[in-house]
Amino acid sequence: MSIDKDTAARVAKLARIKVEEDALPALAEEFNTILGFIEQLNEVDVEGVEPMTSVTPQKLKRRVDVVSDGDQQDKVLANAPDAREGFFAVPKVVE
Amino acid sequence: MLDLTYETPKPKVIAGAKHDWELVIGLEVHAQVSSNAKLFSGASTQFGNEPNANVSFVDAAMPGMLPTINEYCVEQAVRTGLALNAEINLWSAFDRKNYFYPDLPQGYQISQLYHPIVGEGEIIVDMAPGIARKVGVERIHLEQDAGKSVHDMDPNMSFVDLNRTGVALMEIVSRPDIRGPEEAAAYVTKLRQILRYLGTCDGNMQNGNMRADVNVSICRPGQYEKYQETGDFSHLGTRCEIKNMNSMRFIQMAIEYEARRQIAIVEGGGKVDQETRLYDADKNETRSMRSKEEAHDYRYFPDPDLLPLEIEQAWVDDIKSTLPELPDEKKSRFVNDFGLSEYDASVLTAESENAVFFEEVANGRNGKLAANWVINELFGRLKKDDKGISDSPISPAQLGGVIDLISSDAISGKIAKDLFEIVYTEGGDPAQIVEDRGMKQVTDTGAIEAALDEIIAANPAQVEKAQQNPKLAGWFVGQVMKATGGKANPKAVNQLVAQKLKG
């Protein structure tokens, strides 16, 4: 698999990261290096090997269904560029 | 168990300008899990709180915050799966569905694309007594809800409330087994009924706690059967997905509109584009949500913050042992044990509270009579007052008391209705009221005879007519009932009238 300039631009757009036009070829090249490494890993025969999901032997931690958090509107909104009447205020987004 | 047999309904056929067309519909229902806290945080799920009051730093996606799964939500998904006879996956995993939107602070929704917790199941969708569609369920997975954007508070800004962000949803995905708008609404109704019986979702569609994405395509008659034989979707038309429907009526209207739109395109020589559409109830039309299309590349990948969700078979068995009696079983039991018609049994089992009330009334009494009184009198009366069964001013014991008085011939059916109204509005013990207010049925033939004699004496012309035409005897019965204030036993009156008119 090879990433061209257009694909790099598309990935950047989906990730909402602004990349200048002249930086795209270098970015595409970087992607290709990463993917090349992955392809190298793909050469290893892992038939019958269970995928490792954690580096430590532990299970998914669970919580009980109790309200233990929230009620901190001011803290939640503290870093918002704009907040009004308890809401985050953002530029209009409507269908 | 369920021993009601049923026939499969015919698919809906829409006549186009050139041909007949059939519909193929699949639904993705999002049902909010009835939990206290969210799927991965300890913030409250309560509806109607101050904006952004139910938000933990996990929900707000503050850097460094990690999700911890709410075990109760997992249990509810398993419970729902078991109720739909679905396979439960003891090993499932969470994936990130990536997209940007202001009401999704993480930039991704945690969902289960590759390994859902619940696999294939089925729902019997009742269309009419004896007619039902078996709809396959493809999967149920757990995922996070997004927040809410308010667009009408300011001309240039949207306001975002994250209270809903991270609330647990079960996405219940059907197979494309639904063949008409009415079936789609019936499917959602049945699913809602099951969820409410289970208590895993409150089914409140108005608050958005249950909503459906509807996939619609059209095909020529015969094509669907080819798809069924081969499993090859190319026999079917291109589907469009109508997002976020939260009313049974709108679901039907949207499907109807969308099918006709697709038929017009195809018959006009065009091609249906696979896309996401929005239903506009004011205009009764669907329209394309182009902005969604662009973001459709979700770049799913396993969520590195969450280990796989592993559950024990013993735990699943425990949950299974606590399942309540479900609507189909209850309905079938009501038909078998109480001798009810399937229709009456459906009405009584629509909500589990109604079924509980009915069973208390019917216990030790004539089931059919109890069903008639609960459905016709009580439900009718409650509806008039816009009340639910839980607000019923008349208890099962009181209604049972009224029915006992009918069964023992102490009161007539007509008086029983008056008595019901008194108990409904004033309360009290039905038997005592009948005693105190002299409502007892007159079975004393002497008294009835006296009243009848008087009427016969006063109406010789009517007597003559009735003797020539026995159908007119009813007039005398009516007069006697009137003279006795409706308290005469109708059976006794009928007999006496027949006897006297014979001369």
3D structure, described in words:
The complex is a heterodimer of chains A (95) and B (503). Chain A has helices at 5-14, 24-42, 73-77, and strands at residues 62-63, 83-84, 87-91. Chain A is of the alpha+beta class. Chain B has 17 helices and 17 strands. In chain B, the strands form 4 sheets. In chain B, strands 1, 2, 7, 8, 11, 12, 13, 14 and 15 form a 9-stranded mixed beta sheet that branches. A 3-stranded antiparallel beta sheet of chain B has the order 6-5-16, with no helix packed on it. In chain B, strands 4-17 form a two-stranded antiparallel sheet. The two termini of chain B are 58 Å apart. Chains A and B meet through strand 1, helix 3 and strand 3 of A and strand 3, helix 1, strand 10 and strand 17 of B.
Largest sheet of chain B: 9 strands, mixed
Question: Which parts of chain A are unreliable, with pLDDT below 50 for 5 consecutive residues or more?
Answer: none
SSE class of chain A: alpha+beta
Distance between the termini of chain B: 58 Å
Task: Please report which band the strand proportion of chain B falls in: under 5%, 5-15%, 15-25%, 25-35%, 35-45% or over 45%.
Answer: 15-25%
Helical content of chain A stands at 25-40%
| Biggest sheet layout of chain A | 2 strands, antiparallel
**SSE sequence of chain A, one letter per element:** HHEHEE
Count of individual helical segments of chain B: 17
Let me know the average pLDDT of chain A: 91
Q: Count of DSSP helices of chain A?
A: 3
Low-confidence stretches of chain B: none
Percent in helix of chain B? 25-40%
> Taking Cα atoms only, what radius of gyration of chain B do you get, to the nearest Å?
30 Å
Shape verdict of chain A: flat
Global outline of chain B: elongated
Mean pLDDT across the residues of chain B is 93
Based on DSSP secondary structure assignment, what is the total number of beta strands of chain A? 3
Main structural class of chain B: alpha+beta
**Quaternary assembly:** heterodimer
Give the radius of gyration of chain A: 22 Å
